[in-house]
Amino acid sequence: MNIFLIIAGVLSALAAMIHLGCIYFGAPWYRFFGAGEHMARLAEQGNMQPTIITAAIVLVLSTWSLYAFSAAGLIVRLPLLRVALILITAIYLIRAIAGFFLINDPMGRSPDFWLWSSVICLSVGLFHLFGLKQQWASL
């Protein structure tokens, strides 16, 4: 078992659950987690756009969690495991780096959102990277 990939999988699953909370609890959660006032207002108005966008994010994060767990040996081997982990790791790390550049131009979100979400993405990306490095030969 690979502790780095297990942690990465748990963190992705936790992020998915937080996004589910945004769907369930609505505007206050969208605001608290920094989705932006526009998303919060749409949620308050009963618009389905925030739910659809957030549900897609839940699906992606859940899938990424399963791939980390698969590579760690906790669940069955999923298809294209090596390629998927490379892409997941790259997306987390690129998102982290890009977010740091958006702190000064937050595009409807707060600078704190970009800072904290980038630190989180960087952490999860590094767990994936270290886990991927450890498992490389067996993938």
UniProtKB/TrEMBL annotation:
Transmembrane among the record's keywords? yes
- Which chain regions cross the lipid bilayer? 52-76, 83-101, 113-132
| Superkingdom of origin | Bacteria
Keywords assigned by UniProt, alphabetized: Membrane, Transmembrane, Transmembrane helix
* Protein name per UniProt: Uncharacterized protein
